[in-house]
Specification:
The protein is of the alpha/beta class and 498 residues long. Helix 4 links the parallel strand 5 and strand 6. The strands form four sheets. An eight-stranded mixed beta sheet has the order 7-8-10-9-13-17-14-15, with helices on both faces. Strands 1-6-5-2-4-3 form a six-stranded mixed beta sheet, with helices on one face. It is elongated and about 80 Å long. The chain binds ligand BES, manganese (II) ion and zinc ion (ZN). The site of manganese (II) ion has 5 residues, from loops. The site of manganese (II) ion (MN) has 5 residues, from loops.
Length: 498
């Protein structure tokens, strides 16, 4: 799909479909007004007759009227005018993309961004269009033998802005929207693949391919022997029950000054989390193929950053392995030595994410990072705390936490601060080692984060627990691609600040 910003405040542009908004009270949106006038009050009549009330997300497709520039007109309900804002705008865009997909239109002109929207400038308005349409066009890489129902016909989307001043920012927003969508698509593809396909080896190969596709990226994949040489005892403890070999994936993107310290993104890459000897219950165990969603998201973010050619330095690390039971598997009460030298008593082999991540965090020190952000489907407790709406955000640095939080708001990929630190780390005391890998049920998301916190001394570090946000269950089962939008926005901000 191609996106372009056009100046067209009055919907004069010729297209296969013009998308205009109507509010609930019959208020015509910015582009609907001139269309209505041109069509002799058609939209007003439709509203008065009760045929289109403008309810948020409702759509009505009309064939070409006499003298109209567009071959079709898609009316989109914007809901109440006073409540119209960032969220309703996104919902209206989703509805428009969904309705358009059912038509044969190969191109469309979208006028919804002509509305006044609080806190949204031309960049973010346009970004949302590209994201919504690309999201709608996404197809799970399924293994269904029958062909997909309806191929995606829409090839070109023109995004209307009010004046020539807005073209630059809107074009930039479209560029971001597409890069974010591509990054999310990569993350979603990887996470949606079954675990017999998406193994640690597969993830490593995909990261190698990223380096071929994007000259700014260099990838190194460390195998089991290399991981042993690095003395990543905690990582090795998780993988040791598995037939699939582990991979430590390290990608470097250098877009900034040579001397500039990189941002380091670390992803949990458990390609299947059975729980190990502390085996999980069968219900929903299938969803543990998504336990590499953090790794998928940081790779997706890397792809987006490369596409945008952001002037920053970025290091992406994915600790990829399976967590399986076997005669060789780690047993509850085993003690291992982490790469940092701290010893850990593994009381529950299902608390494996923190084990692979603590060694990845220690490994990241060699890059002298300006900040380290790890992304992980780390705890069920985080889902209990925040549901599926917010990712958990913990940090040892106020400024970093604030930047990530703000990025989540701007990107509509929100995170909520949760506590981390000494009080929770106290729950991780062991009689036999420096640390235990579990700390009781209370504050589970924060004790997991505080385990990691023990490995972050002198690092500017933040942790995103995406257990509740990285995928959806039920009929909508599948990866969401979160928190790619948050991370890309965070890095954009860093690039602008530099
Ligand atoms: N990958 C899981 C966390 C998870 C569970 C994410 C369900 C999404 C849905 C993680 O490895 C895990 O098993 N965590 C345990 C920790 C516990 C043993 C302290 C959990 O949350 O139950
Ligand atoms: Mn687990
Ligand atoms: Zn896990």
């Amino acid at each position: 799909m191609e996106f372009k910003a056009i100046v067209d405040p009055k919907a004069h542009h010729a297209s296969a479909c013009a998308v205009v908004g109507i509010y609930e009270n019959g208020d015509l949106g910015a582009a609907a007004r001139p269309v209505d006038a041109q069509q002799g009050g058609l939209l007003t009549k439709l509203h008065r007759a009760g045929d289109f009330a403008g309810k948020l997300g409702d759509t009505l497709l009309l064939p070409q009227a006499r003298g109209a520039a567009a071959k079709r007109l898609l009316l989109v309900g914007l809901g109440s005018r006073s409540a119209f804002g960032r969220k309703p705008y996104r919902k209206a865009l989703r509805a428009a993309a969904q309705a358009l997909a059912k038509t044969g239109a190969a191109d469309a002109a979208v006028y919804l961004g002509l509305e006044e929207i609080e806190d949204l400038d031309a960049h973010y308005k346009a970004r949302a269009v590209a994201e919504a349409f690309r999201m709608q066009a996404y197809r799970i890489p399924d293994l269904k033998t029958a062909a997909a129902a309806k191929p995606w016909a829409l090839e070109r989307v023109d995004v209307a802005v009010a004046d020539s001043r807005s073209v630059g920012p809107a074009a930039d927003g479209l560029r971001y929207g597409q890069a974010i969508a591509s990054g999310m698509a990569l993350a979603r593809d990887l996470a949606n693949l079954p675990p017999n396909v998406c193994t640690p080896t597969y993830l490593g190969n995909r990261a190698q391919r990223l380096a071929k596709e994007w000259p700014g990226i260099k990838t190194k994949v460390v195998d089991q022997a290399g991981i042993r040489t690095l003395k990543m005892g905690a990582f090795l403890a998780v993988t040791q029950g598995s037939e699939q070999p582990p991979r430590l994936i390290v990608c470097e993107y250098r877009g900034g000054k040579k001397s500039a310290a990189p941002i380091c993104l670390i992803g949990k890459g458990i390609t299947f989390d059975s729980g190990g000897i502390s085996l999980k219950e069968p219900p929903a165990m299938d969803e543990m193929k998504f336990d590499m969603s953090g790794g998928a998201a940081v790779l997706g973010t890397l792809r987006a950053v490369a596409e945008l050619a952001l002037p920053i330095n970025l290091v992406v690390i994915v600790a990829a392995c399976e967590n399986m039971p076997s005669g060789r598997a780690t047993k509850p009460s085993d003690i291992v030595t982490t790469m940092s030298g701290q010893t850990v008593e593994i009381l529950n082999t299902d608390a494996e994410g923190r084990l692979v991540l603590c060694d990845a965090i220690t490994y990241s020190r060699r890059f002298k990072p300006a900040a380290v952000v790890d992304v992980a489907t780390l705890t069920g407790a985080c889902i209990i705390a925040l549901g599926n709406h917010f990712s958990g955000l913990m940090s040892n640095h106020e400024g970093l936490a604030e930047d990530l939080h703000a990025a989540g708001l701007r990107a509509d990929d929100r995170a909520w601060r949760l506590p981390v630190g000494e009080e929770y780390a106290d729950q991780l005391k062991s009689n036999f080692a420096d640390l235990a890998n579990i700390g009781g049920r209370e504050g589970g998301a924060s004790t997991a984060a505080s385990f990691l916190w023990k490995f972050t001394q002198d690092l500017k570090w933040a942790h995103l627990d995406v257990a509740g946000t990285a995928w959806l269950s039920g009929a909508q089962k599948g990866s969401t691609g979160r928190p790619v939008p948050l991370l890309v926005d965070f890095l954009r901000q860093r690039a602008h600040a530099a």
